Amino acid sequence: MHVESILSKLVSFPVLGGESNLSIIHWIQEYIEGYGVKTVLVPNEEGTKASLHCRIGPAVDGGVILSGHTDVVPVEGQDWTSDPFVLTDKGDGKLYGRGSCDMKGFVACCLAALPDMVKANLKTPIYFAFSYDEEIGCLAAPELAQAINDYYDEKPQFAIIGEPTMMVPTVGQKGICIYHTKVTGSEGHSSRIKQEVSAIHESMRLILWLENKMNSLIEAGSTDDRFAPNHTSIHIGNIKGGLAPNIIAQECVFNWDVRTIPSETPEQILTEFEVYCREREEELRKVYPGFKITNSYKHPAVPGLDTKEDQAIVALVKELANNDTTDAVSYAAEAGQFQEAGFEAMICGPGDIAQAHRADEFIHKEQLEMGVEFMQRLIQKLS
Q1: What is the pLDDT of residue 300?
Q2: What is the pTM (predicted TM-score) of this model?
Q3: What stretches of the chain show up as alpha helix (H) in DSSP?
């Protein structure tokens, strides 16, 4: 199958993050096994989702993992001019469809190159690693990376995650974590604001603390100019609380995310925030003994990626991409998780992240071809 035909098939599976991906993963599994390659599924506890890994080539150390995710973000509420789950060629050199850019284009390049990988006399193996639920927090990658470590006797050395970078070798990504904060105060008549504890008022103090924390990191020089913005960001995405203007709010909840440069971690910020929350509890319980602040994870923290320029994978990916520059990206990806699992990791894939997660998402045909050429150079390099 040509890369565009494979991409068309992959786009036709409307698998959103959080939903079962068995339809697309079973199609990929059947396709791969059709070339005589054994695949291994890594299911979730309920058996409703699965990641997949496989090896092409000999069981020797030093192999290269090619990794991508199978889920996409929703299309509801977006103004698409074509069916988002039908790959559409409008004659302008672009292929439109949800996931065409992020990141089924890379998966299609892997699968299109599979016949040549199988026929080649590989001296070093190539692995595929395809995950689920990346779009809701990179949930499956740690288990998938560990499954690769546990399953094979040999040890792969490199992991290339094919998020859209316009085929620019990418050595850095920010970490991310999303938190849920719930503030419980005391309900009462609004005229008693000094005798009660408003959950909304206290939430505003917590939010201001978070904003000030972000600003203090910047002022202290904790920056990394590879990223835009070049600092750790803290953002409150939504907030809900209160019943009426004349009722003191008993409850207020807000959700916030932290996107950290590689020298910092979300956990460090949460630890300091927890200290401040306990201080506020101690103070406000003098007014209302039931005052409480609780913080919880919306999903586990995703580590950043910080691959050093002198690591062997950097020279490899530059050669494969035919591009001697490197970059860093501010979005989250699974690369940091593969790095934590012991693999030298980078991000490099076809498509422009600016096209992802929006109506009429597309990938340029020339980007797909560059992705296929990347695979062909990899085959030659390892043969």
Answers
A1: 85
A2: 0.92
A3: 3-11, 22-33, 104-119, 141-151, 199-219, 266-284, 312-321, 335-340, 365-382
